[in-house]
Amino acid sequence: MSRINSNIPALVANRVLGQNNFSLNTSLERLSTGLKINRGKDDPAGLIASENLRSEQKALDQAINNAQRADQVINIAEGGLQEVSGLLTELQGLLTASASEAGLSSEEKQANQLQIDSILQTIDRVAGATNFQGMKLLNGNFDFKTDKGGGGYTDVRINAAKFNGEGLDVNVAVTGSAQQAGLYLSAGGSQIDLATGSSLTLEITGSLGSRELSFQSGSSLTSIAATINTFKDVTGIEATVSGTGIKLFSTEFGSDQEVKVTTKTGTLNGTGVGTALLNATNFGVADTTMTNTVGVTRFDSGQDMKATINGINATVKGKTARINTDFLDVEISMTTAKAQTIGSVGTGGDSGSAVFRVTGGGADFQLASKVDIQGKVSIGIQDVAARKLGSSTLGFLDSLASGKDNNVVDGDTSQGQKIVGEAIKQVSSLRGRLGAFQRNTVGATIRSLNISSENTAAAQSIIRDADFAQETAQLTRSQILVSASTNVLSLANNSPQSALQLLG
To answer: Which residue ranges in the chain fall short of pLDDT 50?
Structure first.
């Protein structure tokens, strides 16, 4: 049949040509953009997944940048702390030099004191000058802020804290009391009574060392206690007169404290005399079992406090408890009264029983792609100024300045050295904690986020990126089909011409 009114073959050829042109254009677009999803109609579900992955990758990349920035901040803080550490070491040497009385003129002591004053001023200057983009790092700006709460502590150090809302209550419950090591030496009166011609020789040993002391018959308990106390910095043992005897006890609390008394010579006369342990439940009362025999040793050790902080069993040394969790890293030194009282400590905070409440502060770093409390890392950087290094028990570093209690000209150099030792320990601990944060938290985070970013990019690529090999093959196919369709359409358009021959 020959019809010219409706050229069906041409219509078919035109439709197929349009389809092939669409396929060709699609391949050209994908090859030019490198994407197989350029708009929603290309793959609605794939577009949604791809956009979610792109958003996640952007957040991951920024979290990596945050971690790298955190590393830079800590590097600058570490530089300042390193300088402070060196100054404290030099300070320790000056104290030791100044403690040598013989052969040291007053002018030399004054010169040493001038150096100490300069060191203290430099420590303060470093604490105030170490900064990152104008943010001071070592002056307490990044220390945690607290209210006083219910009290019951002497010192507190908050290393890290994370919380939502206005604050975080820190609750402490003492489950086992802190104890000193202690023994009781009963003389049966205000002085010791010995056999004629004999003397009482005691070897007294504490956690710091031991001394052998001898006393004659008739020596008063007061003089004996004073003699023992003369060596308390050497032995770590103090003595007080208690009733008709002397109580010997460690200067500190904890399981590493000890009191050991060995009778070398001499036997006390009287009833109920000798050395006794102190009552296990009452440190102020002696056990009734007395030992008054030459060569016998009596020994007692102290006891660490047992406590929980916010429901977590704390690591305790003496009266100082610490927990280290993802949400709270805190170290609290309790007062003696609270450390020896079983039960909850404090009456402050929202809960009514908090020792104190963390209200803010700290250096917060967002180290995860999702912004929430899990992805945030918070670390406390304490003030390292001279007035802050040390403790309320020992004293603070600024007490070594001219005219203060522990200056080297006419002050207590022994106490000053203890304060410097505590300051060195605090700065070293802070440096170690910041180093661990850099190495473990920041370093591991960067490595983990880089892997996550790579995997997220790979997943997005599979969904959204064009496969050039496949698209090139499709392009070649479409080009051939377009060429063929064009030729066929030309033939189809020429086909009705044959019908005109019937008109003659």
So the answer is: 1, 349-351
